[in-house]
Write a structure and sequence with these properties.
This protein is an alpha/beta fold. It contains 11 helices and 8 strands. It has one domain: Rossmann fold. It is 38% helix and 16% strand. The protein has an 8-stranded mixed β-sheet with strand order 1-2-4-3-5-6-7-8, with helices on both faces.
Length: 316
């Protein structure tokens, strides 16, 4: 384990920031997050293009060399309030280079302008667009980080309720899965978490909920979701996260429902540590495990030219 690397990242995330007597505005939160994520390392060997899935824009991320048949539908993080496909590019880029699959990173609507369930509606519409264009669900995987990791689960719930076939697999990095914030780790890991706080999560959570009761399976699947029939799941989380128990409790629900689930816990790393690829050894290793998991479960034929011949009306 890379103790020096982990300590350096922890110190960086805890570094004092300019003091503002008032809470940051939504615009300031969004611009600050975008600036931080712009420092993350994006791998070579990918190309990107604007695209559209259903009613929403998306970013198409493709491997330059040796593409394989398969599609990752990616949901970025940001507490449903901030973030974009661009802020998640270090994650989507590494999944694409690690698997050879293409990825569509969805630009779903954000709160407070568009509170729950807007993000889930957009994610479901994007998945439906892939299916309507002829994509085989066995060749599609959902992946996401933080709030987007939660969307991998809630979009599956919404797809099942709509009578749609489910995707081949789910990969969730540090997913947010409990809008009630009742996991023990919210308190037991508070001092260890250099990034997230209960106060911050409750503020953005209020923007997303807009007065809705969080005791709903589409808001708190770690507590309430029936995961029967779900595809294989990989949940990756660090021990230095207040959201640790979101993953541990969902994994327990998945096991109880007979779902194949891997709970992949890395010691002494922060929320969405996978974004620190190229800086933190554990990030590179976790992304490699995630890519291997996806290649195990996404079933699509590898034929010459497949990447260009698959249905693709979504390219912008």
């Amino acid at each position: 384990m890379s103790r020096e690397q982990r300590a350096k990242i922890d110190a960086m995330l805890r570094a004092p920031r300019p003091q503002n007597p008032d809470p940051a505005s939504v615009e300031e939160i969004r611009s600050g997050f975008a600036a931080m994520m712009a420092t993350m390392i994006v791998p070579e060997g990918i190309r990107t293009a604007p695209a559209t899935l259903g009613p929403r824009p998306a970013l198409l991320v493709e491997p330059v060399d040796r593409p394989r048949a398969g599609t990752i539908l990616y949901f970025h993080g940001g507490s449903f309030v901030f973030g974009s496909p661009e802020t998640a590019l270090s994650l989507t880029g590494n999944l694409v280079t690690g698997t050879g699959f293409r990825a569509y990173s969805l630009d779903y609507r954000l709160a407070p302008e568009h509170p729950f369930p807007a993000a889930i509606e957009d994610a479901l519409a994007a998945y439906r667009a892939l299916l309507d264009a002829g994509e085989d669900p066995a060749a599609i995987a959902f992946a996401g980080d933080s709030a987007g990791g939660g969307l991998t689960v809630t979009t599956c719930l919404a797809a099942r309720a709509a009578g749609l076939p489910l995707p081949a697999a789910i990969v969730a990095f540090s997913p947010g899965l409990d809008g009630t914030r009742t996991g023990e780790s919210m308190d037991t890991r508070a001092a260890a978490d250099p990034l997230l706080t209960r106060e911050g999560l409750e503020r953005t959570g209020a923007m997303y909920l807009a007065g809705q009761d969080p005791h709903q399976e589409l808001i708190s699947p770690a507590l309430l979701a029936d995961l029967t029939g779900f595809p294989p799941m990989l949940l990756q989380v660090g021990t230095n996260e207040v959201l640790l128990d979101d993953s541990t409790r969902l994994a327990a629900r998945a096991r109880a429902a007979g779902v194949d689930v891997i709970l992949d816990v890395t010691a002494d790393v922060p929320h969405v540590f996978q974004a620190f690829t190229g800086v933190l050894d554990e990030a590179d290793q976790a992304l490699a495990r995630a890519a291997f998991f996806l290649t195990q479960h996404v079933r699509a034929s590898d034929t010459p030219g497949t990447s260009d011949s698959r249905p693709g009306p979504y390219r912008g």
